[in-house]
Each structure stands twice: as C-alpha cells, then as structure tokens.
C-alpha cells in the first residue's frame, strides 16, 4: 500500500513497539483514515503527539529563597504574568532548582508555563520577584549524555564507552590534551552519523556540545515542534 506521505522518523519505543512519526497534519489524517479502514486497525494506535509546555530558567537566585515563595513573587510583581495566569494556578509551575556552578550562595530555578504565561514572560527583558530583577531564558529538554556525548540519552542509562566531547578520544573532556586547540575539535556524533549515512556531508570540526552541531540543531527543532506555544 502506498500512501504518498512524508515520514519524519521511525523509532522503537521503550516497550519495544515501533512508532512512525509523519511530517504534517494532512499526512496524519491520510494515515488515520487508511488504518481505520483496514483489517489491522485494532493493532495500531494513531494519535497526535502530546504537546509539552514551554519552560524557563530564571538565573542567579539567592539559595535561601524557597522556590514557591519565588513563584509567588513572580505572580505578584509582574503585571503581564499576573494577568496571563488569571485564575489558572497551574499555568506557572515550579519544576526544579539547579545549582549555579561554582557558587554556594546562588541557584537557578526552572518553571513550566502555559502558552499565555510564556508570551507574558517574553514581553519583559527581566522578571521581578523578591523585589529584585532576574534574567531568564527559555530552556529546552535537550538530552545529551555527559559520558559519551550521544543525544537523546542520559548517562545513567549509558552503556557506551567514555568519549571526549572535544576530540572524540577515549577520555573525559576535562583530561583532553587538545581541549585548548579549537582546530582539533571533532564531533563524535557527526562522525558516526557520516559513517552510517555515506551521503551525509556534516562538518565534524565542532565539539559534540556545540550549538553549531547539525545534529544538535535538528534535535532542538524537533523539540520545538513538540512544544505548545499556543499557535
Ligand atoms: Zn552515553
Ligand atoms: Zn579529547
Ligand atoms: Zn556534530
């Protein structure tokens, strides 16, 4: 059977099932209609992806401040955010705290928002709480293993060997003999991708954490498609 649709990705789920992701709403409807008319309809689930809420990280907050107190400050001291929240208390949710590297006195806090609160944040350059102003930015759920550098993986589940994020060698990046030489950067992910896809011409002269890495860029664009920006 040929449907003439665009397939974005084929994945194996954690349960061992296969998932096929199509590229547009019209392709989704073609697949849905042809499966429901077929004999295999009871064996295949067709559903729209669940959209995730956007997240913000607010930087450099005094460690002694309770995150819920900080959240209350955000809702009471920023008019745009307060009116976007309205009576929906779940539209600004505390997610977690992150320690600030090298600091015992300050931390960062991640919040999850509704699309309306997301837009209200963006009307401001800084947000107020605790009668101080804070820098913030959107944060995406990019997963990258700090042991082997692979994307969509975290180190707790990693069975790969340690791989330098700078040069792809078999050592930790902090022990890399070439880490101060930008010309020696070699992205392990793009190198493997090029080997597996002989037609691929991804440049490899960047680190595996580089925002210029084409695989990181693709991952970010995929994550953005799953976020609910209200449009
Ligand atoms: Zn890993
Ligand atoms: Zn290295
Ligand atoms: Zn790369």
Report on this model:
The chain is an alpha+beta fold and about 230 residues long. Helix content is about 25%, strand content about 20%. It is built from six helices and seven strands; from the N terminus they run ββαβααββαββαα. Strands 4-5-3-7-6 form a five-stranded antiparallel β-sheet. β6 and β7 form a beta hairpin. α2 (about 65-75) crosses α3 (about 80-85) and α3 runs antiparallel to α4. The radius of gyration is 22 Å and the shape is flat. One zinc ion (ZN) binds near residues 190, 208, 213 and 215.
Radius of gyration, whole Å: 22 Å
DSSP E strands, number: 7
Name the average pLDDT: 89
The arrangement of helices and strands along the chain is EEHEHHEEHEEHH
Ligand inventory: zinc ion
The helical percent reads 25-40%
Major beta sheet, strand line-up: 4-5-3-7-6
Largest sheet: 5 strands, antiparallel
How much of the residues is beta strand, in percent? Answer: 15-25%
Number of helices: 6
Net shape? flat
Strand pairing plus helix content: what structural class?
alpha+beta
Instruction: Enumerate the spans where pLDDT stays under 50 for 5 or more consecutive residues.
Output: none
Distance between the termini: 34 Å
């Amino acid at each position: 059977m040929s449907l003439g649709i665009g397939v974005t990705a084929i994945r194996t789920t954690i349960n061992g099932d296969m998932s096929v992701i199509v590229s547009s709403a019209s392709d989704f409807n073609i697949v849905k209609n042809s499966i429901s008319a077929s004999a295999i309809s009871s064996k295949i689930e067709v559903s729209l992806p669940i959209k995730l809420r956007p997240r913000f990280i607010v930087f450099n907050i005094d460690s002694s401040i309770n995150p819920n107190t900080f959240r209350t400050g955000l809702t009471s001291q920023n008019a745009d955010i307060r009116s976007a929240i309205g009576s929906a208390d779940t539209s600004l949710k505390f997610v977690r705290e992150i320690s600030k590297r090298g600091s015992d006195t300050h931390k960062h806090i991640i919040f999850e928002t509704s699309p309306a609160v997301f837009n209200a944040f963006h009307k401001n350059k800084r947000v107020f709480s605790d009668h101080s102003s804070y820098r913030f930015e959107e944060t995406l759920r990019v997963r990258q293993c700090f042991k082997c550098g692979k994307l969509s993986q975290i180190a707790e589940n990693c069975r790969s060997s340690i791989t330098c994020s700078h040069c792809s060698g078999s050592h930790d990046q902090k022990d890399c003999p070439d880490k101060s030489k930008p010309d020696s950067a070699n992205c392990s992910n793009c190198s493997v991708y090029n080997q597996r896809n002989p037609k691929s011409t991804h440049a490899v002269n960047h680190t595996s954490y580089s925002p210029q890495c084409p695989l990181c860029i693709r991952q970010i664009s995929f994550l953005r498609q799953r976020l609910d920006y209200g449009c």
